Every structure is written in C-alpha cells, then in structure tokens.
Amino acid sequence: MNRLQYSKLCRIIHDSLHQFTEKSITKEQEISILITLSQVLNKIKLWTAEFDSDSESGSGSGFDSGSNVIDDLHDHSSASHCILKITNQLVLLLAVESEFVQHLAANVVVSVSEFVVASGSYWEEFMQSLCCYFELILCKVLSPSSDRPFRVKSTLGFDSKDFTLDLQCVLDNATWHSAGAIVLVLRAILKQLKHEDDVESLEIYFQVVGSCLEVIPWDMCNMILVDDINAKFCGYLVQLFCSLADSEDENRAVREIFNIFSKTLTWFFGKQEESYNNTGMSRYIRHKILVLMIRLSYLVKLDCEITVSWLHVIEKYFHNLLSEPVTEPESDQDDCLKDSPFNKTSYRHLQRRVFFFI
Q1: pTM (2 decimals)?
Q2: CB atoms within 10 A of CB 200
Q3: Residue 264 in contact with residue 207, Cβ under 8 Å?
Q4: pLDDT in tens, 58-80
C-alpha cells in the first residue's frame, strides 16, 4: 500500500507544481504559486492525519486506490523514486526569488516529512534525498566548475534510465539563498521530530545529516568572502548546528560538527567585508558560535589541545568582550530586545557567554 500512497503524493505535487521551475517570477506568478502551495499543503496535512487516525484505529490506509493512482504506478518503479521526484520538485521551489514562496515551499517539505514519518517507511530515503540536494547545491555554490559529488550521483540516480529528475535546473538555480532554505527546512524537521519525541526517526535523522556534513568540502568555504549575500546562510547554518548540538547525548551529527568546527570557524571569522563585520548578523553569528561551543563542550570530551585552541579562539575573536566592563550602561534602543545580540550598544549578552565558557 505504501507504493500507492507515495504515488498519490507524487502525483499531486507534480501535477500542481511542475510548471513552476523559474527562479525569477512576476507578482502574478508569485500569487499563483502561493495559492497552489497552500492547497498542496492542506492536502498533505489531511493525508497525514488519515495515517494517524488509521494507526490509532488499527484499520487500513484511508487512501483510495482509484484509476489515477494505479496509472501512476506505471510512472514510478518504486516509492523511493517517488520520494526523489517529490524532493526534486520542492527543492526547485526553494530556489524561487520570493521569501513568501520559499517559506511556504519549506512548510510543504516539512509537511511531506511528517507524511513520510507517519507512513512508517522510507524515512531514511527521504532524508538522504534532501541532504543530497543540500550537498549538490552547496558544492555548486562553493565551486561552480566542480563535478557533482559521487555520493549525490548514486543517491539521486544520475545514471538511472527508469526515471528522470530535473537536476540541471536545480544546479542552474543554485544560490546561497536556496542552500540556506534547505538548512532552514532541516532545522524545522529536527524541531518537529524533537517535539514528537520520535527517538527512532531522530536517530536516522542524525545519522543521515552527519553523513552529509562529513562529505561536504568545508575547506572550500575559506575561499569565500563573507558578505551580506551569504551571511544569512552562515547564520542559518550555525542555527542548525546549535539545534543539532542541543542533545542529551553525542550522536553522528554532533561528532561531525565537532570535526568541522575549526574549518567553519575560519570561514565565519575569516574574510569579511568591512561593512559586514560589525552588523547585527555578524554579532548574531558570534553569539550562536559561543552557544555552539558551550553545547559541544558538554557533549564531546575536549582534550587539552582542543581546549587550548578554543581558548585561543575566545582570545582572538572575543578579546574586546573580555576587556570591557561587565556593568555597562543600559541601552536606549527601543527596537531591540533587552540583551539581544542585535543590540548595537550592548555586548553584555555576548560577555556572559564568553565568561560562562571560560
């Protein structure tokens, strides 16, 4: 029955969204996409609720197996192929140059993840496909001339003759914005899994995301100048790392974050445009890096060498916070939350993080 369920899901996403492949859209197209995405989102939520009600009652699936669904079986050799086509279509929409479309498309991806979890199968395949698109897009952004990673070729079926994916369009639309959109989706999925306390699905999530982080060429990030264009991606990435490290136990993802921490740190604090260096986003990233260091120090046993190197990081990048008085006058800014890292005149929040870590 799972094959029927996924074929039906694939059909509604393809039929509703396949015509939307352009990154740049008009206002009229934006409205059309938003209406369509809302309809798809509501349908997926309804089907997921049917999964849950069937599970509680012990009955079979509430999905129909009409002629349209049966016809779909001729187009897909497996539910795994359906998952690949679904993620392919939704990743294309995450690249659209509209914050509203990106936000709603991300909600649809998260809703699909809930559908997959509720179905009781293919969760690992779904996570692998999503992470492979992240790897594919990020590698393209970091090095436009580089070849596609072998792992991505294998997972996404580049050599398969059974079905085709619009991968070239994904590559053509690859930007920091689309890479950041997938990071936001991964974080939203993690938040949902933690809320549901789904231990088994969380374990698979950590394994797949950890494997993805391991193979991304983070060394190439050090050649990228941090500016207003990719600063949001940096912020989203550190957010995801902090959420992954907000765990009771060490897991595969935490170990990989620990392994790549020094490489990403060089990127975040390395080459920066002067205009960016003292912005609210810059201060926010510094704040989250301190949070990440604190959480990692609880989960991973730090040897003497690592401890000393991290103290050097504090000294190098946060020395001004150590030298300033703790009792700094209150800020007069009404547009900032108290002690917010975005506050332009107060660094007390960051100071507390620094002193706490030391």
Answers
A1: 0.83
A2: 10
A3: no
A4: 554 444 444 454 444 444 457 88
pLDDT tens-place string over residues 200-233:
999 999 999 999 999 888 888 777 766 667 888 8
> 3-state SS of the chain?
CHHHHHHHHHHHHHHHHCCCCCCCCCHHHHHHHHHHHHHHHHHHHHHHHHHHHHHHHCCCCCCCCCHHHHHHCCCCCCHHHHHHHHHHHHHHHHCCCCHHHHHHHHHHHHHHHHHHHHHCCCHHHHHHHHHHHHHHHHHHHHCCCCCCCHHHHHHCCCCCCCCCCCHHHHHHCCCHHHHHHHHHHHHHHHHHHHHHCCHHHHHHHHHHHHHHHHHCCHHHHHHCCECCCCHHHHHHHHHHHHHHHCCCCCCHHHHHHHHHHHHHHHHHHCCECHHHHCCHHHHHHHHHHHHHHHHHHHHCCCCHHHHHHHHHHHHHHCHHHHHCCCCCCCCCCCCCCCCCCCCCCCCHHHHHHHHHHC
Alpha carbons 342 and 279: distance in angstroms, whole number: 8
Q: Which residue from 3, 196, 22 is spatially nearest to 93, judged by alpha carbons?
A: 22
